């Protein structure tokens, strides 16, 4: 049940008062038959439509190389992902009728002309005259076809007159500095920066969005958010499954390009940035870029790499090694796990280690930020006074937890660690938390760039990671083997505790 509160009604009203809501809008999905469209784009567009948040005159056009009937495809292949409630059938049928499809190759000029003509015909005024519309082009396709598609969109399908054109791109945005810069240079020939929406879906997650409010709306943390109070920062990402189904893609990119250089680095910039001059997209992204510019390229001595192998034969569920996948070469050195330490060379963070750790085929699935504060100086208590730690859990079970010391009730005077716990499922019981793509699609439609990556952010991010990536590949550095389902890698834990100055703690209850 998508429970809403009265604040949502205020939000919906504010959306419906915008000019964009009243304008015709075409949403074009390239790669309409692919996994991303099936799992995220179509379901989230339906949920927005159901909530009356899509522009009131919206048409959805799929474009792909498979020959299919889009209405049958939606009803047979995607309906289960829509999670329809008992009264949704009528509105779902209306949504399906808004969908159209063009079968063609991504380098076929005539098909793009057909796409332009189709969009025009979908929006006729009361006198059956062609009507202009806003146009969103979502490239849910492999990055190698971005240049062909973007060029043909610009030459054949741009919105007319005073309507907007938005181009949406999924990561990866290149594999290193050169490939990323080449892609950015190509796109800049045809689109303005404000027309390009580079999606990093982590920026749409509820808890990532909440970090800004937590940091800059609470005086109690503003004063302590610096090197004087904070010992270390750990950004930790785990998945309890391997690369099944996408090993071919993953082997080309690895865990650093797939997760760390984008998702987790973006979280780091939000944690570390100074307060922006406003909450506008450019003001926030300006501060994120300043953080990135203050960072040196990563050194190999600050990195631990791993690759998962099969678990023990006696395990209750047998799990294969990464190289057991038919899409992966037997001698692959691609890392499925990486831990690295980064430093920010500015007044606020000088000397504070920022630890990023990410891995697949581990013991559980989680994503969180753990900020560990300095030890209390001159501890007057006989028993150990542990460091305070702030934990922001991004997924699953969104929460904010502060570990602090408290006197245990009783005649004696003994300290024990306790939690100040804000668990969203309890505090906001039953209230619907928007999916990341739901939020990001809204931003694309209504023109907010806050949760999207700017080209200079991208350039600086690759500057930090390209040297280490090239060194790993040139020297064919062999990753450490770890068993499927492991909690971590001992060498990683050692790096985190020694160079990272981090003390491992129990989980929040």
Automatic annotation (TrEMBL):
Enzyme Commission designation: 1.1.1.49
Keywords: Carbohydrate metabolism, Glucose metabolism, NADP, Oxidoreductase
Tagged with keyword NADP: yes
Domain of life of the native organism: Eukaryota
Protein's pathway: Carbohydrate degradation; pentose phosphate pathway; D-ribulose 5-phosphate from D-glucose 6-phosphate (oxidative stage): step 1/3
Catalytic activity field: D-glucose 6-phosphate + NADP(+) = 6-phospho-D-glucono-1,5-lactone + NADPH + H(+)
Chain ranges of the Glucose-6-phosphate dehydrogenase NAD-binding domain: 28-209
Function per UniProt: Catalyzes the rate-limiting step of the oxidative pentose-phosphate pathway, which represents a route for the dissimilation of carbohydrates besides glycolysis.
Designated name of the protein: Glucose-6-phosphate 1-dehydrogenase
